[in-house]
Amino acid sequence: MGLKVLNIGFGNIISAGRVVAVISPSSAPMKRLKEDARARGKLIDATEGRMTRSVIITDSDHIILSALQTERVAERLSEDKAADA
């Protein structure tokens, strides 16, 4: 069994098994979460300078920003899990 990966856009790949949640970045709590992660050195910006459209939370307490829509990231994650079955 190999490592399952998730393409989060622009050639950026993360471990699919570590993803806990994929959330829209527009709410105030998500903005606070991003700033807290930045202060702790746990923020990974994978937007390539584009607008953040989804926030990915991992089990290692890292916060990953992606320029892909939340729904698209979730679709890719679901496709990956369906391939396992």
Explain how this protein is built.
The chain is α+β, with helices and mostly antiparallel strands and 85 residues long. It is 33% helix and 31% strand. The chain is built from 2 helices and 6 strands. The chain has helices spanning 28-40, 70-84; strands spanning 5-9, 12-15, 19-23, 43-45, 54-58, 63-66. The protein has a 4-stranded mixed sheet, sandwiched between helices. The protein has a two-stranded antiparallel ribbon with strand order 1-2. The mean pLDDT is 93.
Radius of gyration: 12 Å
The count of DSSP E runs of length 2 or more, i.e. the number of strands, is 6
- Uncertain ranges: none
Q: Main β-sheet: number of strands, strand sense, barrel status?
A: 4 strands, mixed
Strand content: 25-35%
Helix content: 25-40%
What spatial form do the alpha-carbon principal axes imply?
globular
What is the typical, i.e. mean, pLDDT? 93
Series of secondary-structure elements, N-terminal to C-terminal: EEEHEEEH
Q: Pairing-aware structural class of the strands and helices?
A: alpha+beta
- Helical stretch count? 2
Gap between N and C termini, in Å?
Answer: 13 Å
Lateral strand order in the biggest sheet = 3-5-6-4
